[in-house]
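thought: fold this chain, then report.
action: predict
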Amino acid sequence: MPRTPLGGAHVRLEPLTLDHLDALAAVGLEHDLWRLALSDVRTRADLEGYLRTDLEDQEAYTALPFATVSLESHQAGAANETVVGSTRFGNMAPDHRRVEIGWTWITPGWQRTAINTAAKLLMVRHAFEERGCQRVELKTDARSRRSRNAMLRIGATEEGTLRKHVVTDSGHVRDTVYFSVLDDEWPAREAERHVLEDDNVPTSRTDLYGAIQYADIAVSLWPEFPSNRGLRNRLRGWYSIELRAWGTNAPSAPSMVIVRIGPSSVEITTS
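observation:
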């Protein structure tokens, strides 16, 4: 696995070092970030211990942790390059050509942006195209609908739930949902999602499901954005679609998002 950065249009993943501690501590000590995590991080010392464990696993060649750096600003006064969280390759099993992506957290100010999806796609792409993996695994707490949706957005398949799988640092007995992407599935997934690297719109995504995925990447998925699976299925196959979202609580969010999908382009407008 690489010890050099992975980069795209929205995000850069820098191999983690203790030099990242100050920047990560500045954005990573909000309790809600760790509420559903295996680790219970509350203080700078807790976070330093968490990072040291990551680095020990790296030295043992079982993990490769990254600091997640946003390359764009959507907050007044924020720098163009901002450390916003961490993620890693873990449970690396080269003999089986398998790796897991996880241990991911993003500071609240950059949640519901393209950052998490873009970072995961960079990692999946590297695992398949540069390292010859045949399976990429992801898993999450069954209670975390946001994380589960994020895994579906990159094209992962939900495989099932391991009940009473692990005990977290807080004492919670966690059910864990597993997802995966396979090497023979990836070319089609990649073709549909190359919009993250350049602004070309995949022409094959002409149904409502595609519109929601694209809008999520391009303008963020506001809490009230329509995402009901039954609705998506009923409207599947439409050629041109208009979606709207009202009533978001995010102060900088548009009151309405309109997504129109035509024969060769997607147009997104906000108001």
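thought: worth noting. The two ends are 43 Å apart (CA to CA).
final: tokens above.
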